[in-house]
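User: Fold this one for me? It's Siroheme synthase.
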Amino acid sequence: MQYLPIFVQLTDKPVLVVGGGSVALRKAGTLLSAGAKLIVVAPEFAAEFIAWQQQGKAELIHGYFVPSLLDNKLLVIAATNSDRVNAAVYKAATARNMLVNTVDDQAKCGFIFPAIIDRSPILIAISSFGTAPVLARRLREKLEALLPQHLGTLAQLVGGFRSKVKAKFTSFAARRQFWEGVFNSAVVREVQANQLDKAEQHLQQLLNAPQQLSGEVYIVGAGPGDPELLTLKALQLMQQADVVVYDYLVSPQIIELVRRDAEKICVGKKAGEHSVPQQDTNQLLIDLALSGKKVCRLKGGDPFIFGRGGEEIQALVPHKIAFQVVPGITAAAGCAAYAGIPLTHRDHAQSVQFVTGHCKSEGSEPEWLSMSKANQTLVIYMGLMKAGHIQQQLIRAGRSGETLVAIIENGTRLEQRIVSGQLQDLAQLVQQHQISSPALLVIGDVVSLQQDLHWFGQRPQPAVLNQPAVFSQATVFNQKLSQMA
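Assistant: Here's what I get for Siroheme synthase.
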């Protein structure tokens, strides 16, 4: 974070603007809207500045900048058309440890002006740290269209009840739950309809009503890693939860979207890494919910596809704990799409199977024969540790050793990596390229399409094994493509 976003109280605080043209005018207008005591120095002034002086909104100093003008000022803005003057303002201000903004010169800025969405007292600031101001303004325009105008009025209404709510509910969790109920109630619709007296009466009724602190568990799929693949409902519940219980497979970028004051508990779930036993995770969810917490159980991919979401819900049911399930984009769909590999295709695969490389310790072997059918795509979750066994059993069951495979590591993320080759070399590919979890195995002729359908990240290159007895994978891959053409 290059800059710390803070909101500064400027009411009646002296702020100096150096410059009297159109650029300075824009900055000065923003400062006046925040209540600043505006002092402007310039040899000439735009007409608006003169009007502000006549209205008592600004003090104008006809002349040129001298460092003494910085005395007793809180902020200074250098907004002239002279680089020399702007540099002199910056130098004098930084020598006094003052915050200075030099317009259109990020290197000479101790603070920057964000793009602002004003729904006072709700205020949203957007910044690109000066690197792409036009992009920041475009984001503001999009958010302006999404955010209703009544937000400010609603905030003022509920703000008048804060002390009452705090007096009634001693715990933060209870207060939060009350306010969540308010914002899901008719109070919002009444404010939107400008029925403010009715909204206030309704809010008072909610406060007077007996409140029962009840817990709930949200079983939420976080998708394969790219935070933009989260569903809207997933994001909403992540923001509402008091506690978030998550796995290693949930990317750090997604954890960043969790409410800042929510408790975050990692329970592992990553091959080869320490993790909390499943029964302990189940008990943790039960204990948190019974204590009245809203719990978001955040899982990589989809909770009902190799996510053990069903097991966790089964543990909640006997305790009559309320729950809801939010599906997520499963790794097979997300990773394959970002790798340019369609899981089904009329010319290459008429069906697809999702299987896991992990079974219960007492579980039987998978149906290798059904998994080895031609014209079928096989997607294997958590298959790295048993890559050699998977390779051996599929070939033994009849799948050709020349079947194309893709190993997708960190699929959908910026660090996504794809290693492709043949089934007969699967274990060697994993070892040679030091593939680590999370990774997905895609086996089938559809892998041949990635060279044409690739769109995300660097173009995948077929692996080249470093054994002289083995053909270059690039050669074998191209031979396979020509055979299919």
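One thing worth pointing out: The first helix runs from residue 22 to 33.
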